[in-house]
Amino acid sequence: MDDKKLGEIVGAANVLDKPEVIEEYAGDLSFVPRVRPEYVVRPENAGQVRDIVEWANKTRTPLVPVSSGPPHFRGDSVPGVDGAVVVDLSRMRRIIRVDPQNRVAMIEPGVTFAELQPELAKAGMCAYTPLVPRRSKSVIGSMLEREPITMPAHHWDATDPMLCAEIIFGTGQVLRGGEAAGPDTIEEQWEIGKAQMTPMGLSQFNEHRLISGAQGTIGIVTWSTLKCRYLSKLNRTFLVPSQNLGQLIDLIYKLLRIRLCDHLFILNGLNLACLLGQTAGEIDGLTAKSPPWVLVVSFEGYGELAENKVRYQEADFMDIARSCRLESVIEMPGASTKDISGLLSSPSSEPYWKLRYKGGCHDIFFLTTLDKTPDFVSVMTSLMSSRDVPAENAGVYLQPMVQGTSCHCEFNLYVDPASQTETGIARQLVNEGSRDLAEKGGFFSRPYGAWADFAYGSDVETVTLQRKVKKIFDPNGILNPGKMCF
C-alpha cells in the first residue's frame, strides 16, 4: 500500500499508523469482531476526500469513513475486511453558515453537537438532537444514522433534520443533493436567497436517501445543511409517572394527534436514573425511587407570545392527562423537571450517560408502532428471565417518530466490560433478543453488525436492488465493504 501517496494528499502528519492509533480504530464497544486497519488518514477538506477516494479506486483499497469521536457502539466504523484505510473526518469541523432567517445551518462532518449548539445559540437557534447525545457525536453522523430526535411533533420525515448535502460517491464523483444541486455555486445561491433547505433532488431523485442509513457504503458526505429550531425563551417540562405503560401510550397518541408537545418520550426507571445520576451508587439509589415508567414532555415558548403559548398548552395537556387518569408532576422522588429540562437539547456530560452505570452498554433498537411496544417489552422481559437476568437490569427508551406514526423502541443492556460473565450474557441477549424481536415484527431499519443477517435474510428483492445501487455508485466496492448486505 502506497502510504507516500496518501501523505501527498493529506500531509504525512495526517497518515497515522502507530500501533496504539490502529488499535483504537480496530474495534469498539459492540460485538463486531476486531479488524485492524492499515492506516488512519485525516483529510481537511472535500478535495482531499475526493483524492483519497480516487486513490482507493486505483489501488482497490477499502475505505471506512468515520466522523464521530470515541466511544463507538455499533460496529459500523470497524473495518469489515483486512487492508482497509480509515478516513477520519474529524478535522473537517467548519460551521460553514448559520442562517437564522431560514432556520438552517451548514456544517462539515467533524462538527459535534457540543460545538454546534453554542454557535446556533448566538443566532437564537438550537439543533434538533437525539436523546442526550455523547459530546463526541458528529451531527452529520447522527443524521445519516437516522437517530430519532426527541421532538416527534416537529418530525416530518425519517431523514429529518437532514436537508441538502455534498456527497462524494465511491466512483469519486461529487454531487450536491437537493436544492443545492445548482447550477450555481453555493455562494451564488446564497446571493439570490437560496438556503439549501429543500432536500428533494432533481426530477424524482432524492440523493440523501441513498446515503441515509448506509453506514458509509455508498458515499462520503463532506457538508450538509440541517433544519434547526428557534431557541426557547421559556420551557415547561413535566414528568408523568405510571405503573402502566399502556396509559402513557394512550396519552401520547392524544397529544400527537393535535401536536400538543415539543420534547416527548418514555423512559423506564433505570434509564431515567442513568440520565440523572453520575455514579453507579447514585443510579441504584435513583432507580429504587423511580416508578416503572416515566413520560417526559415539554412545551417550548419563543417569539413575542412565548408565555401565552406555553400557558395554554400546559393547561390543555393537564386536562388530557387527567382524561387518561394520569397526573403530571414537576418533581418526584429522585427526579425533577429542573434537572431534566437542562438535558433535553444538550450533549451528555462526561462520562457519557450510557457508560456511567457499569462502564459498558449494548443496545437493541428497531422501529415499530407505539401501540405494539408493550408486547416487545414482554418479549425482552421473558428472554431476560430465561437467562436469570432481572428485567430491571435493562433500560428502555421509547421515542415516537414522524408525528407518532412510528416509534423507535430501544433496550439498553448495561454491563461491566471487565466481567466475562456479564459480557457473555449480554452477547446472548443481543443476538437472541434481536432475532426474537424481529420475528415478532420489529423492523431493524439500521442493520448494524449481525443484524444484517436476519434483516436481509428473508428479503431477496431488497438485497438485489441494494447491490445494484451499490454497483452504480461504488462499482469497485471500496466504501466500507463487509457492512449491510455488501
Written overview of the protein:
The chain is built from 16 helices and 18 strands. The chain is of the alpha+beta class and 486 residues long. The protein folds into three domains: 3-88, Uridine Diphospho-n-acetylenolpyruvylglucosamine Reductase, domain 2 (2-Layer Sandwich), CATH 3.30.43.10; 95-230, Uridine Diphospho-n-acetylenolpyruvylglucosamine Reductase, domain 3 (2-Layer Sandwich); 235-439, Vanillyl-alcohol Oxidase, Chain A, domain 3 (3-Layer(aba) Sandwich), CATH 3.40.462. The chain is globular. It starts with a helix and ends in a 13-residue tail after the last helix. The mean pLDDT is 94.
TL;DR of this structure?
This protein is of the alpha+beta class.
The helix content, as a percent range, equals 25-40%
Overall domain count: 3
The overall average pLDDT, rounded, is: 94
Name the structural class.
alpha+beta
Low-confidence stretches: none
User: What integer value in Å does the Rg equal?
Assistant: 22 Å
Query: How many DSSP-defined strands?
Result: 18
Per CATH, the architecture of the largest domain is 3-Layer(aba) Sandwich
CATH superfamily of the largest domain: FAD-linked oxidases, C-terminal domain
Q: What is the fold-level CATH name, i.e. the topology of the largest domain?
A: Vanillyl-alcohol Oxidase, Chain A, domain 3
Topology (elements, then pairings):
Blueprint: H1 3-10, E1 15-16, H2 19-25, E2 39-41, H3 46-59, E3 63-66, E4 85-88, E5 95-99, E6 104-107, H4 113-122, E7 125-127, H5 139-144, E8 162-169, E9 174-176, H6 186-191, H7 208-211, E10 219-230, E11 234-242, H8 245-257, E12 264-268, H9 269-276, H10 280-289, E13 293-301, H11 306-323, E14 331-332, E15 335-336, H12 337-341, E16 360-368, H13 373-386, E17 394-401, E18 406-415, H14 420-439, H15 451-457, H16 460-473
Parallel strand pairs: 2-4, 3-4
Antiparallel strand pairs: 1-2, 5-6, 6-10, 7-10, 8-9, 8-10, 11-13, 12-13, 12-17, 14-15, 16-18, 17-18
